[in-house]
Design a protein that fits this description.
The protein is an all-alpha fold. The protein contains 21 helices and no strands. The protein has a single domain, classed as Growth Hormone, Chain: A (Up-down Bundle). 79% of the residues lie in helices and 0% in strands. The two termini are 17 Å apart.
Length: 442
């Protein structure tokens, strides 16, 4: 039985996981509500083209990507809970402002502003969770946290689609953005533990701590160093397993981002499914496969990691390799039943990599680098991934058709599988960058 201080800490960590996961749900609801509104926006008084519509996601992601390294550096040096509260309030206000847009420029600016707030949250929250829970639990913890991606995305499709049909696209933005202000206040009550709180020190980390002045913590000295930011990012770029993991994640994000943005419109235009049914049906597939796939992947990753340090990467590689041909069949077949079966299998396998790959990112770097590692990862996966993919698919759709444009998605999935397999091999050859001792219970 846990002693009182340990029990109090477990309860505090569990509460933190619950609040951060719930915020992540609204994070993705806010992000993907616009996907449910694509056809209404196209035929509204704004009269947007497919390239315009794709650029709404790209504009958001450009700001998101550029702001991420800034917040990553702040997250390794400042109060993480206060930064998260600020972030949630920012994106909530920006989402509400989207509902007031009277032109493409105004809507683009509002959606881009959402990216500023989300950049802070996505880079800092995993670092906070890594200091709430030991390494042996992080695959499952990240699975719970990132399970909010499919659930939130699905709610964005479903709630956005239903409100759009009954009350119009402007009201959908108001409903999506409002609850965030309450969630921002809840963040201020969360604990912000010391960096590396749940890690067994490795020789590398121990040497870095001993280099500081007597009585000075690693966190304080690190924050005071003027060259620490550039040094941290240069160190991360030299970490080959981490870098390959991020590049594979970029290809994965290219595929998932393009698919998430355009599928409701694809179902309506190519499959002839009514708008409300298209958003609800695809949302249902996302939430079911995402929920199951993310939990199975997180559990399987932690179980296999007992035997192999590269297990998280191998599971991600194998799952996406299986997903690629099913995604191709789902997007090219003329059979509705075959589309349904293949899309479910493809999405299930895609989401299996969510927990393992994010556990790999925090495990491959030092505790004092985790927010920065997440920030650099966010920068890369979006800059190379879902910043270009919605716009590119929209551009190809304008030139040819949406049915042809979406065929680049399964190709990107296959690329992600190959790079993650390469990353697993690189990790085995170089050893665990964060140190094998981190396998301890914490």
């Amino acid at each position: 039985m846990a002693n009182p201080p340990q029990k109090a800490w477990i309860e505090s960590a569990s509460l933190g996981l619950a609040i951060l996961s719930f915020i992540n749900l609204f994070n993705y609801l806010d992000r993907y509500v616009v996907s449910a509104l694509v056809e209404s926006l196209k035929h509204s008084e704004l009269a947007l083209s497919d390239a315009n519509l794709g650029s709404l996601m790209s504009g958001f992601l450009i700001v998101f990507t550029l702001a991420a390294p800034i917040f990553g550096a702040l997250g390794d040096r400042r109060s993480r809970t206060r930064l998260i509260a600020f972030a949630v309030a920012c994106w909530s206000v920006a989402t509400v402002l989207s509902g007031f847009a009277g032109s493409f420029t105004a809507l683009f600016a509002a959606r881009a502003s959402v990216g500023f707030g989300e950049a802070a949250y996505v880079t800092i929250a995993p670092s906070l969770l890594a200091d709430y829970f030991p390494r042996r639990q992080r695959g499952r913890v990240m699975a719970i946290f990132f399970c909010a991606i499919p659930v939130g995305s699905a709610l964005g499709y479903v709630i956005g689609g239903l409100i759009d049909v009954h009350f119009g696209w402007r009201m959908a933005f108001f409903v999506a953005g409002g609850p965030g202000l309450i969630l921002a206040a809840l963040c201020l009550g969360l604990r912000d533990p010391p960096r590396g709180n749940q890690d067994v020190p490795t020789p590398t980390v121990a040497r870095s701590v001993q280099a500081f002045a007597p009585g000075q913590t690693a966190q304080v000295a690190y924050a005071q160093s003027p060259s620490a930011i550039s040094a941290t990012y240069l160190t991360l770029l030299r970490n080959k397993p981490y870098l390959l993991t991020i590049l594979g994640y970029a290809a994965y994000t290219f595929a998932l981002g393009g698919l998430a943005f355009w599928m409701p419109a694809f179902l309506e235009r190519v499959r002839g499914i009514p708008r409300s049914q298209a958003t609800v049906s695809f949302g249902a597939i996302v939430v079911i496969t995402g929920f199951i796939g993310t939990f199975v992947g997180g559990w399987l990753g932690d179980y296999c990691a007992r035997r192999s340090k590269q297990a998280h990467l191998w599971i991600s590689a194998i799952a996406t390799l299986i997903a690629a041909p099913f995604a191709w069949l789902a997007l090219t077949t003329g059979s509705t039943s075959l589309y349904l079966v293949c899309m479910i299998i493809a999405q299930l396998c895609m989401f299996m990599s969510t927990g393992p790959i994010n556990a790999s990112i925090v495990n491959l770097v030092r505790p004092t680098q985790r927010a920065s590692a997440n920030a650099l990862g966010v920068f890369a996966i979006h800059c190379l991934g879902d910043v270009p993919s919605p716009w590119l698919i929209g551009k190809i759709s304008d030139l040819y058709s949406l049915a042809q444009a979406v065929k680049i998605v399964p190709v990107a999935i296959l690329v992600s599988a190959a790079i993650w397999a390469w990353a697993a091999r690189a990790q085995r050859l170089s050893g665990d960058a964060a140190g094998p001792a981190n396998q301890g219970s914490g």
